[in-house]
Amino acid sequence: MKSTVRRKKKQQRDLLSFWAVEGQPPPAKLARSEETVEEALDLSVNDRVEENESPEGTENETAEETEDDDVEEIEAPEDTEDETEEPAEETVEMRVETGKKQSAKSGAATYRCTFKREWTAEWPFITLGTTTSYYWCSICRHENSCAHQGKADVIRHIKSKGHRAKEQAIQSTTTIAPYYAPVSVGGMTAQDAKTRRAEVKVAVSMVEHNVPFAVADHFSPLLKECFKDSPTAQNYKCARTKTSCIINEAVAPHFRKELVMKMRTNPFTLITDGSNDTGREKMNPLTVWVYDSYSSKVVHRFLDMCPTSGPSCGTAEVIYQKMDEALQKNAIPWRNCVSLSVDNAPVNTGARNSIASRILKEHGSIYIHGCPCHIIHNTAKEAGLGFLEVCGFDPEDLTVDVGYWFKGSTNRKGYLTEFCELHGSEYLEILMHVSIRWLSLERCLTRILQQYEPLASYFKSSNEKQPRFRRLLEAFSNPMTEVYLLFYQATLPVFSTFNLLLQREKSSIFLLHDEIRSFIRNPQHRELHEILYKDPSNQLPGEKLVIGFTTRATLNRLLDAGDITPQQVQRFQQAAVAFLVRAVEYAMKKLPMREPLIKHAMFLDVQQRVECGVEDALYFVDRFPELLP
């Protein structure tokens, strides 16, 4: 029998091809990683014996090639004992006696096995190699062939000495995971999560109470010293830089995202006011009143700073443009805005070129209202000007002069203390009046009246040349000054009480209509909507004016004692009437008395709902139809 061996590569000759003859069994197996070099030599010797039967022309060549292969297998280093070489497919062409040419392939040389996914499920460290005929062992970090016997090749590798030695070494090695990444909360350990929570809590508390971030530099060493047995305190590391990053990069985006989501689906009120022009940029903080479903109440939140700059930074066009950008970039629709609360400046509430006029073009149902607290404050100030025009007394000038006279002078306060002891009264600190503080005038006047006699004695007994002292001496030497102060003490609570009501944190729009009517009616206890309150015939005579019981008693006492004249009494009564008339005039002009929204909002109050009709609810349905579900 003649056989012709065709090889693709001389170094990868398959020994099985020499046994592909009828009647001859194939060799047991090639040398594997778990076999010894001696077994490989035995296979080679048997191969030579069979090759002796081949023709003489090919005997020497075959012997030389076999000898070369044997040498290569014997000299293979131990590092590659797990490696297997993929046998090349070789075809042995045989000629039988009949003269026909036959070809044969033996075993895996005929069919190549491929990688199966089920092997990874059984052995997780076995995965697909570079091709389907190879698999990757992550323990040995080596790629081996599975083309010969498939799963048997994998099992043979797993049972090999090299693989078992590496597997045992991995099992005996302690993992370092507990020392750096035991995952519990967001990739952090439980202790790290507690420490991070403490840092965020402290940072938010500092913002809530307006504490400077520089204080955070002292928290880390302070907590470590105070709580030495606490792992959280010992791991606390949050100075001013980290605190600033927590607020600006973590907390603020989180709450802003929540606010934007609420504004997209719920009605809200916008509130804005401009800062003083002290820098190159003008700040126009934009805040929001919106319903919070978590707390079941309306909450006040910050949305955007809306900074403006340049020569037109304070114009209505630029400010409105910034407000519109703040809503558009967050995809917040104008149709959800039900109200705009701004200051009473013309740039905000003007009829034509203002922020209000531009917003009404976007959504005509928005209710525009100025600051009612500011209106009440200005009403009292306007009434005081009417009083000043008649009698020449200004309570603000007096309180400012008294406050600054004793401010920063221990010597003057010591003399005043002696006069307080002389009159049998307790010394009280003189309060400073600030004209922009709505409720400070009443408190300052009350404090002066509590020490009126010691103050009068102090200024009458002193001899100073300063202009302020001369003004104070003239005021406290005039007996009508006490009457003026008592009149203001009796009248200003009407304004302060209404102002405090408007400053409530709870919603009080349903009370506004009745409270405005009550405020207008209080000065003279009469309804003034449809009567001519400036006509003297519609006014009470001076002796029947409600100026306060103490004021009336003091006025009569001074008149009976001859300290004041009837002309002074008459002028005071005229000044009181001017005060009341001017207050009513300004309040009726500025307060939203005829606003239908305030009138119909009374049905929101459970106590007033019985007096309301269905038309009150239908008013809001017609005005804000887009808010209906």
Automatic annotation (TrEMBL):
Instruction: Return the annotated region ranges for Disordered.
Output: 1-101
Q: From what superkingdom does this record's organism come?
A: Eukaryota
UniProt lists compositionally biased (Acidic residues) regions at 52-91
Q: Where is the composition biased (Basic residues)?
A: 1-11
Please state the span of the N-terminal signal peptide per the UniProt entry.
none
InterPro entries in UniProt: RNaseH-like_sf (IPR012337)
Q: What is this protein called?
A: Zinc finger BED domain containing protein 5
Originating species: Dissostichus eleginoides
